[in-house]
TrEMBL record:
Superkingdom, natural source: Bacteria
Ranges for domain MmgE/PrpD N-terminal: 37-260
Family: Belongs to the PrpD family.
GO MF terms held by the record: lyase activity
Name of the protein: MmgE/PrpD N-terminal domain-containing protein
Originating organism: Agrobacterium deltaense NCPPB 1641
């Protein structure tokens, strides 16, 4: 069967090469997660996605630029009053919103054509808490949500020329998170199809590269809103609401809404499921910075501890230059700045919330002024020391369709988790994974406690 390929030709048309639908492709890809037992390798990857997401959620809760989200959400969303830690039990939509915002706040969360984990895990945990779902159900929903995100985002990837103007990062997250939550509840394909039409109406607009301008907005992706929209869409469908007809297909399908100029299902077909290809970040920074930072981390041990770095030169193509601005106008700027992240790494500042807290005039950022960018077809870094020594290294390029081997391995994910996550949350997650066929009540309570504390604006200490 030939794939569906549509190319935008104007305001109202496209070129149809063949007739298989995006919806059919979507259900073909997520079908493996609807009923059969998860493959052991896929299940472990789903566990790692949850573990890494819990880490990023914990790390994001205490950030200054996250606190407005926590404060406003606690007063806006309906919550059940309680006593004890925090003053309320967060509602389902509140849980989804705050979890999604916090998990992405530090830009440390996983990535594959966007940030699938933050909104998908947020929606699934929120619904799971309401229904006291088992860990088995959560992991099934996570795997299905990641696959749905991959199918939709990869099929609608715009051409290079169009991508320079508009991208669909975040647009597909509400649909994917809704599908993940629905699969965790055991909903059938008919329900899922109706859900897509409703979730589309709750989806975000595509961005136009504004977050590369300084100051970087704290709401770079607004993934909490994407997760909350997924929960709202799910409940509306359960209440009998209907949505957009034939939402994904044809010349007016959601790919148009996502700002793309083409739809190509051949891009979706990979041997491994999406959850096996997602990348776990080494550093709290945009994925485009990761390979440069990894290279720097591998080079620094070559220097004598008494050697001072006098100059840093990063070489790369033109699209790297936007990550080379030195001025930090807001905390979120750090995640998009090679000068800042290089300086923090050289200064031995632990990757995590501390990267978000360092002031622009801090000594830990003194190396920013020694940074230069060199336009080149090849990517590399060069360090010059006060002793006149030069250390150079090439920088590899990751495959955006399979980031697993470029990100943290399992031991790295676990180490990051143990370093940054809330201890009570770690204990609760361990219990849920150990008794995976039972309701994960302890996990849900731990998540709710942290959200309640954040909403009450109490201090959240990051574990050291």
């Amino acid at each position: 069967m030939l794939p569906l390929i549509l190319h935008a030709t104007g305001t109202d048309g496209g070129l149809l090469v063949n007739e298989p639908t995006v919806m059919a492709e979507l259900f073909n890809r997520i079908g493996m997660f609807l009923s059969a037992d998860l493959d052991s390798a896929v299940r472990r990857r789903a566990e790692l996605c949850l573990i890494d997401s819990i880490t990023c959620f914990s790390a994001g809760l205490g950030l200054k630029h996250f606190k407005p989200s926590a404060a406003v959400a606690s007063s806006m969303f309906g919550n059940e009053s309680t006593t004890g830690a925090g003053s309320f039990t967060p509602s389902t939509i509140h849980t989804a919103y705050i979890y999604g915002q916090a998990a992405n706040a530090l830009d440390y969360d996983d990535t594959l054509l966007g940030h699938p984990g933050a909104p998908i895990v947020a929606a699934i945990l929120a619904v799971g808490a309401r229904e006291n779902l088992s860990m088995d159900r959560l992991l099934r929903g996570i795997a299905a949500g990641y696959e749905a995100h991959w199918v939709l985002a990869s099929a609608a990837t715009p051409s290079r020329e169009r991508a320079a103007l508009v991208r669909s990062v975040g647009v597909w997250d509400t649909v994917a998170a809704g599908i993940g939550a629905a699969v965790s509840l055991g909903k059938d394909p008919e329900f899922l199809e109706r859900l897509v039409g409703v979730a589309l109406s709750h989806s975000l607009l595509p961005y136009t590269g504004k977050w590369y301008e300084r100051p970087v907005p704290a709401l770079k992706n607004n993934l909490g809103w994407a997760a909350a929209g997924a929960v709202m869409a799910l409940d509306l469908v359960q209440a009998g609401q209907t949505g957009v007809s034939n939402p994904l297909d044809g010349s007016t399908g959601m790919w148009r809404m996502a700002g793309s100029d083409q739809l190509d299902l051949t891009k979706t077909r990979k041997d491994l499921p999406a959850i096996s290809r997602v990348g776990f970040k080494h550093f709290p920074a945009c994925w485009h910075l990761q390979e440069y930072l990894k290279t720097l981390a591998s080079v620094l041990p070559q220097l004598d501890e008494r050697e001072e770095i006098a100059a840093i030169t990063v070489a790369g193509p033109a699209d790297v230059e936007k990550f080379c601005q030195q001025a930090m106008l807001a905390p979120a700027d750090v995640a998009f700045s090679l000068p800042a992240t290089f300086s923090l790494l050289i200064s031995n500042v632990e990757p995590g919330p501390r990267w978000d807290e360092v002031a622009d005039d801090s000594p830990e950022l003194r190396y920013k002024s020694r940074f230069a960018f060199d336009l080149s077809d090849k990517r590399s870094i060069k360090l010059e020391t006060t002793r006149g020594r030069i250390v150079m290294s090439s920088v590899e390029v990751s495959d955006p369709h399979d980031l697993a081997n470029r990100g943290l391995d399992e031991s790295g994910v676990v180490a990051k988790y143990e370093r940054l996550s809330d201890p009570q949350l770690r204990s609760a997650l361990a219990s849920g994974l150990a008794e995976s066929d039972r309701g994960a009540a302890e996990l849900y309570q731990a998540v709710h406690r942290l959200i309640a504390v954040a909403g009450a604006d109490k201090h959240l200490a990051h574990p050291r």
